[in-house]
Amino acid sequence: MKAILGKKLGMTRIFDEKGTVIPVTLIVAEPNVVTQVKTVESDGVAKIQVALPQTRKLKKPQAGHLEKSGVKSTYLREFKLEGLSVGEKIDLSQFEVGQLVAVSAISKGKGFAGTVKRHNFATGPKTHGSNNYRQPGSIGSMFPQRVIKGRRMAGHMGHDKVTVKNLKIAQIDQANNCLYLRGAVPGANKSLVSIWSENE
């Protein structure tokens, strides 16, 4: 498994040899530092905790946790990687152009949304005095006299962990620590993204 943390900068486009436009998402992935090595007893899989370096001031518990690795960061994630020790760095040299990767990030928050926008419910008739244009309709029968778990209703939309798989690496700029992924990546600009590949 290959993995790294980065920050989404935004979308742009590049051109291939034939002049075809390729929409890409630009991700800056500076070298990650291994801050902790774990071993899960249940399945015996080794995990490491990596950090994306920052310059911000840390709280004392965070600074104590990161003291051995010598890095300042609040961006911490865990990956199933082996053969690494605390203080080692992970960079973009492990990836190749054309490789398929998966990306996880927190999607954009949309606030409180109704059922039409949140779950693509159909709207009611606009004419003939209908008062049921954007209402959700029935939410259940008389039994069991409660709202069933998982019922699609209005509520908080977005700000969830979203994973997109099989994104192809279009280009790698090793000098500037930039990764160009073909297609869209969830999350707002400057948000943290986790990139990994199961295939060796």
Helix and strand arrangement:
Blueprint: E1 2-15, E2 21-28, E3 32-39, E4 46-51, H1 60-65, E5 76-79, E6 89-90, E7 100-106, E8 109-113, H2 115-119, E9 155-158, E10 161-173, E11 178-182, E12 192-197
Antiparallel strand pairs: 1-2, 1-12, 2-11, 3-4, 3-6, 4-5, 7-10, 7-12, 8-9, 10-11
Strand order of the largest sheet: 1-2-11-10-7-12
Main sheet: strands, sense, barrel: 6 strands, antiparallel, barrel
Mind telling me the C-alpha Rg?
22 Å
Order of helices and strands, N to C?
Answer: EEEEHEEEEHEEEE
CATH C-level class of the largest domain is Mainly Beta
CATH superfamily of the largest domain: Translation factors
Report how far the terminal alpha carbons are from each other. Answer: 6 Å
Class derived from helix and strand content: mainly beta
Low-confidence stretches: none
Give the number of DSSP strands: 12
Count of discrete structural domains: 2
Topology-level CATH name of the largest domain: Elongation Factor Tu (Ef-tu), domain 3
Strand content: 35-45%
Overall mean pLDDT: 91
> Can you give the helix content as a percent range?
under 10%
What general outline do the C-alpha atoms trace?
A: extended
Count of alpha/pi helices:
2
Please identify, by name, the CATH architecture of the largest domain.
Beta Barrel
